[in-house]
Amino acid sequence: MPSPNVRPARKAVIPVAGMGTRFLPATKSVPKELLPVVDRPALQYIVEEAARAGLPEVLMVTGRNKAAIEDYFDRHPELESALEKKGDADRLASVHASTDVAQVHFVRQGEARGLGHAVLQAAAFVGDEPFAVLLGDDLIDARDHLLEHMLAVQAEHGGSVIALLDVGLENIDKYGAVAIEPGTQTAMDGDEVVRITGLVEKPPIDEAPSSLAIIGRYVLAPEVFEVLRETAPGRGGEIQLTDALATLVARGEPLHGVVFSGRRYDTGDRLDYLKAVVRLASERDDLGPPFTAFLREFVTELPAEGASPS
């Protein structure tokens, strides 16, 4: 069995080249990753998560019409100077937070050929070290340390580690699904750790190996790049990261999954995006009390289910 990689992961990769068609027309001019979740873009939450987990270098894999993302993580001297002159220390601190949270780099994907192809663009940045991949549609609550757990599992076992969520068999055809080795479960702060024996992208419900779905956090061994270079387009005509991981498993490389039991917010779906904004806003110290008071009043004014609004 391959020995664990003694070098810890230090870098994170965030693919941000998607077109965001589910949020049109807003995303005609604003990248979906910059849509605000309360008062910060979803993407800033992701970068903060990587930095909190000890990954100070972040590569964003961008595409056309994503220049606003580079601008967002760049310094804005004129704005900073104006806020400083006004003595607006709170807003100045929030502006600094978006640029100081991590060292952010950018590379263009060029052609959208799937998640696996996007990850492959990070090969030169990563080198021969393990690294994390964070997808921008999944927000993990800052109180839940999923990525930290995954990094610890990779440091112990080597190979690669993916985040899993039990979505029920009725929903598994929307996700990549995994087969697991019986009796391999261990626990880490409430999250189970399992050994993965197979993966399939969006299987029919009656062919799914389990109800455990792959969600948007990965800690990958650098060997994945070699496999991705040889991976043919799969489902949807795209180079699937799931297919590359399945190849690594077939070669005997260790692949573990952390079954997440905490709070996850899906910002890639319009309804779930609204739910995320409500949940996060209601828990804020500054906005929570008046916002939850409004929600309670608003709910009492809603028409009964099935009734027409007045």
From TrEMBL:
<keyword id="KW-0548">Nucleotidyltransferase</keyword>
<dbReference type="InterPro" id="IPR005771">
    <property type="entry name" value="GalU_uridylyltTrfase_bac/arc"/>
</dbReference>
<feature type="domain" description="Nucleotidyl transferase">
    <location>
        <begin position="11"/>
        <end position="280"/>
    </location>
</feature>
<keyword id="KW-0808">Transferase</keyword>
<dbReference type="InterPro" id="IPR029044">
    <property type="entry name" value="Nucleotide-diphossugar_trans"/>
</dbReference>
<protein>
    <recommendedName>
        <fullName>UTP--glucose-1-phosphate uridylyltransferase</fullName>
        <ecNumber>2.7.7.9</ecNumber>
    </recommendedName>
</protein>
<dbReference type="GO" id="GO:0016779">
    <property type="term" value="F:nucleotidyltransferase activity"/>
</dbReference>
<comment type="similarity">
    <text>Belongs to the UDPGP type 2 family.</text>
</comment>
<dbReference type="Pfam" id="PF00483">
    <property type="entry name" value="NTP_transferase"/>
</dbReference>
<dbReference type="InterPro" id="IPR005835">
    <property type="entry name" value="NTP_transferase_dom"/>
</dbReference>
